[in-house]
Amino acid sequence: MSELAEVGDFCPNDSCPDAGKTDEGNIVKYGTTAKGLQRYRCKTCGKTFSENTGTIFYNKHTGAEEIIETLALIAEGSRVASLSRVKDRGGDDPQLASAGSRACHRN
Questions:
Q1: What are the φ and ψ backbone dihedral angles of 80, each rounded to 5 degrees?
Q2: SS3 state of residue 88
Q3: Do 16 and 29 meet the contact criterion of CB atoms below 8 Å apart?
Q4: CA angle 73-75-79, nearest 5°?
Q5: How far is residue 42 CA from its own chain's centroid?
Q6: Are 37 and 52 in contact, with CB atoms under 8 Å apart?
């Protein structure tokens, strides 16, 4: 049984000749972001990406812990509007709603 690939094992850039290929030796560590996330660079296409690229945490201002907690509450039947009120988000939070919707509709 093969192992699952992790972020940093392959280039996520669809236009790269090595996109999605693992063990090509084209991905190198490239410092960290201001938030302390590991950055990577593809030596083939030159694109950089962070460790959360391609995840529900990518480009979010809400912390990972809060997103995970919110998704758990949605899975238990809580409404997004109710969670937004409780978490003082001022009504429906589109960021939480879209993350929750995508996570709940994955197979």
A1: -60, -40
A2: coil
A3: no
A4: 60
A5: 18
A6: yes
Model pTM? 0.64
Q: Indicate the length of the chain as a whole number.
A: 107
For the segment 58-85, what is each residue's pLDDT rounded down to a tens digit? 888 888 888 899 889 989 998 888 887 8
Query: Whole-angstrom Cα distance, residue 13 to residue 27?
Result: 12
Q: Taking a C-beta distance cutoff of 8 angstroms, is the pair 106, 75 a contact?
A: no
Residue found under tokens 């409404």: 79
Give residue-wise pLDDT tens across range 16-39. Answer: 999 988 888 899 999 999 889 999
Structure tokens at 104: 């709940």
Check: CB of residue 26 under 8 Å from CB of residue 42: yes
Q: 94: which 2 tokens?
A: 């589109």
What's the whole-number mean pLDDT along residues 44-66? 88
